[in-house]
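REQUEST ID: PR-0412
SUBMITTED BY: lab tech R.K.
PRIORITY: routine
TASK: structure prediction, single protein chain
INPUT:
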Amino acid sequence: MVKNNALKSDDLSHFSENNIVCQLEWLIFKLFKNTKKYQCYSKVYQMTCIISITNTLHGLVSEGYHATLRDIFYSNPSLYKKQTISNNTIAMITRLIRIPREFLNVVSTSKGMIRGPISVFGSDLSGDKYNRNKIIEFDCLSKIEGMGHSISPYICRLMNNWRINIYKNISFVLIIEKDTVFQRLLECNFLEAFNNSCILLTAKGYSDLPTRALLYQLCNILPYETLFWILCDYDAHGLTIGATYIMGSQNSAWYDSDFKVDRILPFPLPRVADQLANGIIHKQSIFQLSKSNIVRINMVKQRFENCIEVSSNIRAQWIKICEQIMLDGVEYEIDCIEQLENWVEEVIKKKLASINTDELEDHKEYSYKYSE
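STATUS: complete
OUTPUT:
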């Protein structure tokens, strides 16, 4: 099976280059218009910083160049004085125009990694907008990058211009919290155990927008039979990471987009008592839940209970794992599991073998919109 798809143009119309330029020009006009109202130094200084950085962002987007947060600070260090000032100003601008910084061509170091039978190709948008005829293609199953392919921080701006080619039937997508676990699975030929019919992906901790954007596109391309799991630590942080993939970030400092993947299921982890009895984990690897972590788990649970956008089936499984961790009263890191590679492979094979027609119908109920 070969699939060759991209997001519908309407999905990202708000983030088109022309619209972003118009939004930035509107912001500059509005700021200039309101500057006369402010008399105190702090307000005038804040407006000056916003106008200066908005002008810089306008140049980046209209000319097709990219910059880091550090680059923007050094574009006028005498004005910004400290990088925290320029960073906070950029964050404020993203909230004012409701566009993530990645779409403003403000990039950071690549975090995400992916490995699987897919190739991505399209126009090279890394240079200025007058030299974009070069076609780039990379294979995420290439032997040259056997330990995973980096997910480009530019991918958000490329999504309407690039295409994903899936050249195998994909049984499941496994999102992994930790890079160490991601590397361990690849080292033991995890993909080959499933005849390369799966995709592994990690954001090395809390997800960044480029990783979620690529996962969002995969979710739109892959059929409803494809399962999405996330393998994360058995604690509050692991649950929060899973919730971010499904319901988006709660970080109020930066404006974030809605690249939500509400098909993701928690990896089926048994009760801690059962794992101890079966020698899956050892007693010295588990720790008592702190009061603060219990509060955080309850907050994640409440997010799922109140998020009606996520299907009842998905919510039920996430609420169940939240309650299970609190009932166990302990936490542990996923990489302390004995022979983790073999155990994960065995669990997935059993799960895939147990899927029957009824389960597929249930999965179809909450995933149907992705197969359209």
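NOTES: Confidence is low (pLDDT under 50) at residues 1-10, 368-372.
REVIEWED BY: pending
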